[in-house]
Structure formats: structure tokens, C-alpha cells
Write the C-alpha cells for this entry.
Amino acid sequence: MSARIAVVLFGPEGRGSFNESGWEGAQRARAAGHTLEVHWIAPLDGAQRAEALRALCAQGLDLLVAHGGQGDVPVGTVAPEFPRTRFAITQGHFLSANTACYEVLQEHSAFLAGVLAGLASQTRVVGHMSGEKVRPGLKGRAAFAHGLRSVAPDCRFVTHFCGQQHNPELAYEVTRALQREGADLVFAMIDGGRDGVSRACREWPIRQIGNVLDWVARDPEVFVASALAHSGLCVFEAIDDFVAGRFQPGSLKVHGLEDPAYVGLSMSPDGAARFGPQIEAWRKRLMSGEVVPDEDFSGPEMAAVV
């Protein structure tokens, strides 16, 4: 009898870069011969998310993979109730006797994105926006700000978490507010709201740095770079480990720049031609451990726009 495996994606079905990566990881697991179900959980509230996981686990799951740091709270709530079920959290940090975490170091590529922004900004104002304040997003923001500061201490950094990953209209308004602050580049760590950021970039003099997927290849008119972090590969890895008997509760598996299949910086042809050598130099410093990205940011944040 095959294992009962579920992959949980937080957000509206079919939306967003981060969840798209998770979906691709699930499809890769299926292509490798693993049987699994994919479930979308839309509510933002942690208690509602936990209740949704509880209902799934009550069906007798062997493995539940929660994609994203949003899984820390609901898995932390539910895992003790189902000690025979194994839980994996991608980009998470909750560890216990029946949970493991698989992480892609978005902060490595975010740092490089900050370096690029500092080199490329003409207005000397650089923006950042994201949705929920989960730990991976906070670390990514801190690393981006660190990279920016390392090459461009003269740049002003404007940052905002709007509270929702999947609201294009809200993302549009935030991007517009960053542009009014003078930003000509915005690092958007966003999911289903991505279309709103891109729409603002088409209407106003501001360009975008994406994350997770290669947005430069998808939309070169809007994106100058993308901080690659293929977290969906962790979905596949967790499932493959479990089926093969390699799954280790209480452990954290981490992938950084040493594995370009997981982490890197995609740049526009112009950006690569102008700044490629500097980016490569910083990449080597990160890989050697000479530079360690900040994990916390204590600077000011832009006030709510709506």
C-alpha cells in the first residue's frame, strides 16, 4: 500500500510565484512516480489554517508537506495531535519529533538583488514590498537591505509589508506609493499580487526585481532581475526522502548558492553586461562565508497605503 501524502499550498488556487513553485515541485514528485494530493488553503488566519490541516490529517495521512513559512504556526499546532503523521515545512523553522524543514536560502539571492539595486538605481531610492510578515520574508528583506547598503550607502531604502500575498490591487497601490517616494526599483517578494506590481511598473517609471522564479525570462520589459529561490524543489525533496526512507524528523535541510538549481540571481542582458563582474564577486564572498546576510532589519517602514 502506497503512502498517503498531501501537499498544502496557502492561498487562492493557481495564484502566484511562490505557490507556482510549490505546485511545480508537487508535479515533479508525481512525475517521479509518487502518489499525492494537492490542497489549497485560502484563509489567512492561523487558526483556520490549523483547522484545515487537522481535517486533512484526520483522514490518515502519512506525510503532509506545508509549502512556505506560513506553515510554521498551523503545523506547530497540529503536529502534536498526530504523532504518527510526518510533517515537512518548506521555508519553515518549526522542528519536532515528527516534523522536518527544508529551506532554500532566499536571503542569498536577495542579498545579490540588493547589490544589483544599489548599482543600478538612478534615483538613489530603492523600494521593497511583500505581503505577510513570515520569517522567510523578513529574512529576505533584511538580506536585500544589507546588499543594498553594502554597495550604495547613499541609497534610501523604503519598505512595506501590506499583509496580503495575493491581492493585486493592494500590491498595485503599494508599488505606486513606493514610486511616489522616489523609488525607481522595487524588490517585490509577492505571490498572487504580482500582477498588480507589474501593472504599476508598466504605468509608472519604476521597474521590478522579482523573486523565486525567473521573472526576467517571463517579462523582460518589467523586470531587471529576479532573486531565484526554487523552493518547490524542497517539496519534491521532502516527498522523495519520505518514500525512500531518508526523512529525518527534527532536521533542517538547507540549500544555498552552492547549488544553482536552487538559488541564484537572474539579470537582464543589460544588467548582466554592466554589473555581472560585481555580482559575481559578491556571490563568491557569500559562498566563502566572508559575507553573511543580515537576518533582521530594524529600519523604518512605510506607513500603510490603504
User: Anything to note?
Assistant: The first helix runs from residue 17 to 31.
